[in-house]
Amino acid sequence: MHTFSAVFPGLPEVDLKQIDERRFVDAVLAMGDLTPHYVRADRLSPLHDLDRVFWHEDEACLTPNLYMHWALYGAAHRQDVRVLLDGIDGDTTVSHGLEYLGELARGGKVAALGREVMALSRRHKQAPRRILWQFGLSPLVPAPAKRIWRTVRRGHPRPWGLNTVINPAFARRVGLAERAEAVQGKRETPARSARENHWRELNSPLLPYALEVADKAAAAFSLEPRYPFFDRRLIEFCLALPAEQKLRQGWTRFVMRRAMAAVLPDDVCWRTGKANLSPNFKRRLLDHDRDLLDDVIMHDPQIIEEYVDVSALREVYGRYASEPMSDDALTIYSTVTLALWLRRTGLTA
């Protein structure tokens, strides 16, 4: 069986601490009967091969890590692989189980709540108060109270978040504020149980969208991706499990860890975190495509002026150019991707 892994040896040590998973890859490979292949994702830009991506996706999709999947699919194709197993989205199917804390708080089970909060704090090295508030108490606060508190703290921010590069006239024309408030209202309405919250996550429209994007990208390389975690029988089984099977003694996704304890290496089975892919995305977008970013944002932004506040975009770009590790990278990526898509298709509003 062939394996395909993205690696980032060229990144600074500070980034590798967040993104490098070679330790876990090597632990699996040591089990034997596997033929590994590596993709140097640190040599790629998030805008890599974008024109071909557009042709296959047929839209300007907001998928900042697609460039890595694209490269991995290409590596699989070169090895004459035809079927590729993908772990998306095991977290949602199995569930971390953190909503169990809210269920304990709602039921007044203070002792059990305290034990789980302290166990999570030890395993994830986070303050108990933060865990208790975020997962135990905050879900019980009514949505209207959350909106009032957010207004008091932040004033009157735009309801679609801190991204201020959207053209206000376009936002009014499409009713963006009303749409954002409707979505936010659904998110803030407390679930009645951990199971209901799990069900909501499984019904997120982002999941089919992600699969559609991945399927089209894989098809570009004559690959059939398969998603074992999205087997309906497994989804129904995990959804039916009581919450204490998903979170126990500070271990999230406990049922899966226990089931795989004799199958996976301990380093993999009992790990408490996962890679943060953003360092490579943020650095390489600027390193590899600075000229393209300058062209779209500074020299020829007319094609996106109807959708984007260009002066605000240039301000964000200035911040990103001086501090590449800022969260402004995603705003720059999304607007440049839109501009390049519009240029390619010749479409306007």
Sequence-ordered SSE layout with sheet pairings:
Elements: E1 2-7, H1 13-19, H2 22-29, E2 35-40, H3 50-57, H4 66-78, E3 83-85, H5 90-94, H6 99-106, H7 110-124, H8 128-137, H9 143-154, H10 168-173, H11 176-188, H12 194-202, H13 206-219, E4 224-226, H14 232-240, E5 247-248, E6 251-252, H15 254-260, H16 266-269, H17 278-299, H18 310-322, H19 328-345
Parallel strand pairs: 1-2, 3-4
Antiparallel strand pairs: 5-6
Helix pairs in contact: 6-8, 6-12, 7-8, 17-19, 18-19
Write a compact overview of the structure shown.
The protein has 19 helices and six strands. With 349 residues, it is mainly α.
Please explain how this structure is put together.
By secondary structure, the chain is mainly α. It folds into 3 domains: 142 residues, Rossmann fold, CATH 3.40.50.620; 35 residues, no CATH class; 68 residues, no CATH class. The protein has a two-stranded parallel ribbon. The longest helix has 22 residues. The mean pLDDT is 91.
